[in-house]
Amino acid sequence: MLRPFRHLPALLCAGLLFARPAAAQGPDAAAPDLAIAPSTQVLRLRSDLRSILHAPRWRDARFGVLVVSLDRGDTLFALEPDAPLEPASNLKLYTTAAALYYLGPAYRFSTLLLAGGPVRDGVLEGDLVLYGTGDPTISGRMLESTTSTFRAFADTLAALGVHEVRGNVVGDGSYFTGERLGAGWLPADLDEWYAAPISGLDYAENMVTVRVSGSAVGERAGVTTVPATRGLALENRVRTVRRGSTRIHFERAEDRLIVSGQIRRGRVVVRSLPVVGPANYAAAGLRAVLEEHGIEVTGSVRTITDPAESPMRPGAVPPRIVATHLSPTLAEIVSVTNHVSHNLFAEALLRAAGRAAAGAGSVDGGARAVRALLALAPGADTTALHQVDGSGLSTLDHTTPGNTVALLEYLSGTGDRDAYLASLPRAGNEHGLRRMYDSAAAGNLRAKTGTIHGVSALSGYVTTADGEHLVFSIMANGVPSTAREKASEDAIGARLAEFSRR
Description:
- The protein is built from eleven helices and 20 strands.
- It is of the alpha/beta class.
- The strands form five sheets. Strands 2-1-20-19-18 form a five-stranded antiparallel beta sheet, with helices on both faces.
- A hairpin with a 5-residue loop joins strand 19 and strand 20 (469-477).
- Helix 2 runs antiparallel to helix 11 and helix 6 (330-340) packs across helix 7 (343-358).
- The two termini are 47 Å apart.
């Protein structure tokens, strides 16, 4: 369901929402009272912020900063607010805003268990299909456990008297389309948890722990996974040796994980890494849980990634729905996304927004939805936003501090304001933004961080000593030390919280 533009897909396709808005304000501009000279207090604030920003004296670093009063509408500070910069995880501000706007805070992802045939004498004569709509939360992070959803599905089948599936377990991840990884993600990141691939069907945050154990000499090593799987696309090429060093290599091929090398008898090697095919992983996990519950599966694990092959495609007669799992609310998911800076969650939210607003559950569809939302923000420049993922992990993402402030200012006046604000980590809080303790910003400033190699950012809201509400965006690119830059961001946040016009 679209919120609130029912005709937004048509407008998107026609390109009617992409007219360039008025240019953002220039450095140290004051609006709307341009004829009024800034007060002494404002001039002192600007001087202090310049001193903080110039303290590191990095020759090749580029900065963009904008601070605007939500109450008065004037610009308190501006330094290259229209500079196109890599936002890192500040891009999640755009992604989560779009998800809330188009889907609503109460939205829940659904995951369906479908029966591809009749049940006769306890036997399901056909495939069992696991169909996802992009839920990234089927894990132990927000649910009782990683396998709790699948255990509930198994309980439902058992209650229906099913003890055998005479067919395959099919993982259908076709709800989202396009690449599973973001363009511009660095190769060095691809084996890390924060670069897990995305699908319409996700499980255990698409991370698997592989345990390799030495067995009989000359035999293939034992390989098990956590969570347990049956039918995971994993190729075991590890041999057990009596002597020699243990050398295990993990390789992510196009369609499977490959574990190769050798291991000494009695040794154990454990490694956690992203899976290759999320839908395959989910189906393999479900099959393992079914068999643990005494439900035999005579077939194998199969996956669907092409929407044209999905039993839920338009025009097809859908299989019978056996069970449905609903995710936590979108407001809760957005809060985790911004507090943890969870990339997989952000990638799912971008595609879900694209599916709802543009009819395309892809990066392109999501990016179009974000630009259409940004176009509603006065002063924003949609041409300065280049988005190739939902998380900001890519080095190809660009936006401006002016756009970020415009978006934050616009969101503060919508019905999604409370859910959006609550999703931003609070300064000086061990469960939020673990920075700016013992400052005026503690318990006050709420902002999203951003960090990738050479990039640091902090954007959000802060209340001054007078109770005036400010919105700000700080972006730095090409910094040799993100830690030192974050110290500068903290100093700016504290100074804004201390600011008084009196």
